[in-house]
Every structure is written in C-alpha cells, then in structure tokens.
C-alpha cells in the first residue's frame, strides 16, 4: 500500500510562519540555544517525539469520563488492566514520566558503587544511575559504530562483552542490565528479539536483574516483525508481549509509545522490589493508584497503549520517517542508516567538513535548520557529549557529530516533511557557508539545555 496516514484530522492548530530576520534575532537572543526558543518562534518542531503526539478522538472521549478519585480510581484499574495484558508484570506503578520511573526502580535496585550495564543508557537514565553513586556502562554492538551500514538491529547490546562483564571480577558490582528499546542514544536503532533473549538468558545465568527501558516498545516490535526472521507473522503486540516476558520488569516513559503528553511507569514481578518501589513512589510521586498522574492521563494512556500497536499506525509512522530520511539523502545529507522510526539522525560531520569538532558542527547544522526554515531539532555531538573545559573549549569529543530530527506522533503531514527536505536541500547547496560556534556560557550540569554560544562568522 502507498504511504498514507491511517487517520484523518479533526482538530487543527496553526503553526507559526516566521521571517528569516525574526529567526536570526530570536536565536541570537537565546545564545544560539534552541531549548530557549518559545514555541511560537518555531515552525516545525522536531526537537523531540516525547509528549508531543496528537491525541485520538477515542483518547479524548475516555479522558472526559475519567475518575479523579485519590485512591482506587477506576481509571487506574483500567490503566493497570491494559498494562498487565501488554507486559504480564505483577506490579504496575504509574509515574509522571520516564525519569521518575528510573529514579524509583534504580533507587530500589542499585547501591552506591554498583554498575548498571546497558546497550546505551539514555541521558536521564545515566544521570539517575550516577546520582545514586553508581557507574553506567554502555555496551553497544560493534555494528552501531558504522553509521552507513544497513544492519537491521544496530541497537543491540554487545553480547560477547556482556558475557565477559558478567563472568568477570566486577560481577558482584553489577546491579542490573537495562536494555533500551529502541536505542534512542544509539541512533534510534532497534534491538532484535534474539538479542533480548540472549541478554535475558545471560542475566538469569548470572543472577542479575534484567530490565527494559521500554519507552518505544511498540516501535521496536514493529522492526522485529519487519526485519527479524521468524517474526513476519507475529503482530507488534505479540512481539512486545514476548519482549516484556523476557525481562524482570521495565521502566518506561509513556510520553512516547503511550501517545500522551505526560506519563510513565515502573513494572516488576518481584514482590519485595515492588514494595520498595511503591514506598519510593508514594513518598515522591503520589499514591500507588495515580503516581503523579491525573485520572484523565491514566485513561488516555490505557487507550494510547492499545492504539500504538496497531500495525497500520506503525507502518505509516515507519514509512513517514523513512521518507524524511530519503528526502535528506536526496538533498545530499547523509543520515544514520537505516532510518529510525521515531527520528532520523543527520551526519553533520560529513556535511560540514570545514568545521572542526571544537566548532560544534552538529550544533551548527541544527542552528542552520532553524535560521533557514524555522525547524527546531537537537545536536548529538561534541556539544552534548564532548568533554569541555570551563571556558567551553572541547577537550575530547564523541566519534560522531549528529543532529536528531525527531518526528512527533500523528502531528505532521507529508508536506511538512517535504518542507524539511527542501530546507535541508537549501543548506546542502552551500554547506561551506555554515559557520561554527563558540561557547560563551558553560553550565556545570545538563550543558545542552542551558549553554550559550556565539556564531564564528
Ligand atoms: C529511551 C529513553 N529513556 C528514558 C527517557 C526519559 O523519559 P522522560 O522524558 O519521560 O523522563 C527518554 C526520553 O526521551 C528516552 O528516550
């Protein structure tokens, strides 16, 4: 079937159409930091797919009937029933978003000095591990290092290294293995069922808890049905259920595949761990039957978690993101291959070879997308991941300079994506004109949110 969204639009919101002069003024005023822009200054917002999706009519309908009772709300029980059917876990705790789930689960599992092992910890995930005085160890598979290869499961964990770590002298310090599906920090690439199965088996053999960071569980399941031998006849829901069954529990930001604006969950099987998580949740998020969410959020989540595994929806989403990737490539901009489902990642290093890592080429490309087209996105390169001194000078950088264009769920149409492709083509005609940047304000923590920069040309 040709590319087509399996829904029509009933409610619309105007998007700001701005001038290049305005955009130059606004971005300069933020210190060239797009996190400080106001939404009315942005035409196409590809900063994140988190909490930015469009609700369905059915989600709005159930929200209207939500139960806002403090304890024991029927909306909680509906949410629990849907999550229980999907994950099979015994204990299900809603929380307000993914990082709260991380703090609660890791706070219950890890002790200072322990190691958390992952295919790749997402940034807040790493922060929550480190805040507990623990070490976050990433073991991405070797294939992930080749941005151009079309390997189908570049989000996998490196099983040989996982085996080594689990059998090595550090075993007593390993508190958990966390598999991020899909691997957001690793180019949005999926993880195969074979990899989840093998990691799960290794963890069982060594007595280490195995959890999923399941923010994009449905999108990962989609790729499994499309790419992994033996799963072509499975539904995405069945694949997701199998993945959950292989783990001892999960954390999830439901702002992604819950298709809501706010929400998350912790779910585990072990009753003692559940009790510990519940205590932390009540102390810091809210009572166990709402966990920081309103009844209407729980209702919309229950509905969203059913809609998100619809194969027609997932196919359209994968097609749209792949289409955006093909537009970027046609414009002469390389992307991390293969295109992800929640985002494409532009290879800024290749497009802007005249800029050194210390001039932040990823950030330069992200700024250019805004200046030329009002498109907001985020750098994943030296600015975000590099080691800088207190003057903002790069000491060591990551191997890649990427720019992530994240696609909100059910929000933008094909012509919006074509507009992004045109702006990319305009930039790619004269990449040598894109200037580098110098950092003028260097925050100690969470640099990318609050730093300020100036243009070097
Ligand atoms: C893989 C992954 N884990 C955790 C989080 C954190 O979730 P939240 O933003 O809801 O706190 C995110 C958010 O983007 C994510 O992509």
Automatic annotation (TrEMBL):
A matching Pfam family: Beta_elim_lyase
The UniProt entry's GO biological process terms, in alphabetical order, are: aromatic amino acid metabolic process
Kindly state which keywords UniProt assigns to this record, in alphabetical order.
Lyase, Pyridoxal phosphate
Among SUPFAM superfamilies, the record links this protein to: PLP-dependent transferases
Which residues in this protein are found as N6-(pyridoxal phosphate)lysine? 256
Coiled-coil-forming residues are: none
Q: What is this protein called?
A: Tryptophanase
Which species does this protein come from? Allokutzneria albata
Higher taxonomy: Bacteria, Bacillati, Actinomycetota, Actinomycetes, Pseudonocardiales
